[in-house]
Amino acid sequence: MQICPRLEIDINKIKHNTLTLTKLCKEKGIDTAGVTKVFCGIPEIAQVLVDNGVTMLADSRIENLVKLQGINAQKLLLRLPMISQAKETVRYADISLNSEIKTIAALDAAAKELERMHNIILMIDLGDLREGVWQDHIEHTIGEILKFENINLLGIGTNLTCYGGVIPNKTNLSRLVEFGEIIEAKFDISLTIISGGNSSSLYLLEKGEMPDRINHLRLGESIVLGRETAYGDPIQDTYQDAFTLVTEIVELKEKPSVPIGEIGMDAFGNKPVFEDKGLRKRAILAVGRQDMSVQNIIPLDPNMTILGASSDHLIVDVTDCTENYAVGDEVRFNIEYGSLLQLMTSEYIYKHVK
């Protein structure tokens, strides 16, 4: 009997997705950074990305970049660096995304102490309102960056959809290119990278609307789940099921569909609402909200319905299932990005790479 609950990770599907996407990008002159944060920087998976076309590995956590040091690829820190981790950033990341002069000054001091140069990509906010220099501060910021002796301005970039949901399009990414050209002309420098965002920008490649000078994308969900993230559509010739959650039934009983007694708050401070469907066969699975977002998992059995979850238990309705489930049986789920991120992070979920 295999360990439950577990994530089954199909390495061949990840390999296929990586090849498909890096080929698509390469045809348009775009290098890809493979984002490793969703699988917590597992080196075995990261190596597959590098072997199949990504030109650098990107993660939001220094701890994950440490795991990746044995892989021959540039390392990019995705989350804006913390001043308190300036030395670790320089030591473990070849490149970092930045927007604060104070932080860049700390990176410069750390790089000087470690006797190396540190590359940065200056992030520009195009309206999604997450990280980035606001547009009327770009030239001043560039001028300050160029004063640092141990900082190399590798390029500029932007992030869209992750916070404000702003869709990348030809108009806003063309503005990023224009900012790059203004910077190059004013300061007489050449930018190596103009990073046009993440998996939400991929649909522009298929439409032929990616501005020519965008030459770098940071791809995570598109590689691991085969989806572009602007509209959530599957990408042609990719797998959406490289990761599968496998759980075990710990109770299987017929019970009323509405709790008996006065209804108060559940364990998470919500007052639940129930629909009376009479007696139903309900299975309890040994996984819960401590491990995942219940809203982002989908039973492989189309006749199974998720009823809800507590910290440690997932409750499903199996009344209409044709499968004759029993206590001890395994139940499988497809996973969306939000739950995959949590499941990979949870130390209570066994990860089985196959």
Brief digest:
The protein is an alpha/beta fold and 354 residues long.
What's the average pLDDT?
96
How much of the sequence lies in strands comes to: 15-25%
- Label the overall shape: elongated
Q: Would you identify the CATH H-level superfamily of the largest domain?
A: Alanine racemase
Order of helices and strands: EHEHEHEHEHEHEHEHEHEEEEEEHE
The computed structural class is alpha/beta
Describe the structure.
The chain is α/β, with parallel strands linked by helices and 354 residues long. The protein folds into two domains: 215 residues, Alanine racemase (TIM Barrel), CATH 3.20.20.10; 111 residues, Elongation Factor Tu (Ef-tu), domain 3 (Beta Barrel). It is 27% helix and 24% strand. It has ten helices and 16 strands. Strands 1, 10, 11, 12, 13, 14, 15 and 16 form an eight-stranded mixed sheet that branches. Strands 8-7-6-5-4-3-2-9 form an eight-stranded parallel sheet. Helix 4 packs across helix 5 and helix 6 crosses helix 7. It is elongated. The model has no long low-confidence stretch (mean pLDDT 96).
List the helices and strands and how they pair.
Elements: E1 6-9, H1 11-26, E2 31-35, H2 43-51, E3 56-59, H3 62-67, E4 74-77, H4 86-92, E5 95-98, H5 101-113, E6 118-123, H6 138-145, E7 151-157, H7 170-187, E8 193-195, H8 202-207, E9 216-219, H9 221-225, E10 243-256, E11 279-285, E12 297-299, E13 305-309, E14 314-317, E15 330-335, H10 337-345, E16 350-353
Helix pairs in contact: 4-5, 6-7
